[in-house]
Amino acid sequence: MSKYHLGEFEEIVMLTVAILNNEAYGVAIIDEMEERLNRKVSIGSLQTVLRRLEKKGYLESRFGEATAIRGGKRKRYFSITAYGKRVLTEVKEQRLGLWNAIPQLSLKSITMIPMIK
Amino acid sequence: MNTPPKYPLRFFRWFCHPDYLEDIEGDLVERFHSNLKKKGGKNARWNFAKDVIRLFRPGIIRSFTGMYKSNDYDMFRNHLKVALRALWKNKSSTIINMVGLTIGITSCLLIALFIQHELSYDKFQPKANRIARVVMEYSFDGSSDTEKGTFTSTKVAPVFSRIFPEVIKGIRMTDATKILLLNNEPVAESGFMFADSSFFDAFHYEMLHGNPATALNGTNKIVLTESMANKYFPEQNALGKTLEVGTEKIPYEVTGVIRDYPYNSQMRFDFLASFSSLGRNQEETYFNANYTTYLLLNDKYSFASLEKKINPFMEKEMEGSGTKISFSLEHFDKIHLHSPYSDFVQNTSIGYLYVLSGVALLILMIVCFTYINLTTAKSIERAKEVGVRKVSGAVRGQLFWQFIVESFTLCQLAIVVSIGLAAILLPSFNQLIDRSLRLTDLYTVNFFLVVASIAIIISLVAGGYPALVLARIQPAKVLKGVFKNTSSARWLQQSLTIFQFGISVFLIICTLVIQSQLDFIQKTDLGYDRDHVIQLPIDWSHSHQSISTFKKELINNAQVLNASRTANSPVNIESGYSMRLPSMPENKAIPVNANPVDNNYLEVSGLQLIAGTNFTGQQVTATDVDDFDQMIFHYIINESAAKKLGWTPEEAIGQEMVLNKEGIIVGVIQDFNFQSLKNGINPLVLFTASWGQKLLVKINGNDVPSTLEYIETQWKQFMPDRPFSYHFINEDYNRLYNTELQLGKTMNLFSGIAIILACLGLYGLTSYMIQQRKKEVSIRKVLGASVWSLLNNLSSNFVRLVLLAILIASPIAYLLMQQWLSQFTYRINLPWWVIVLTGLVVVSIAMVTTGIHGLKAAMANPVANLRSE
Question: Which residues of chain A does B34 touch, with a Cβ-Cβ cutoff of 8 Å?
Answer without folding.
Answer: 27
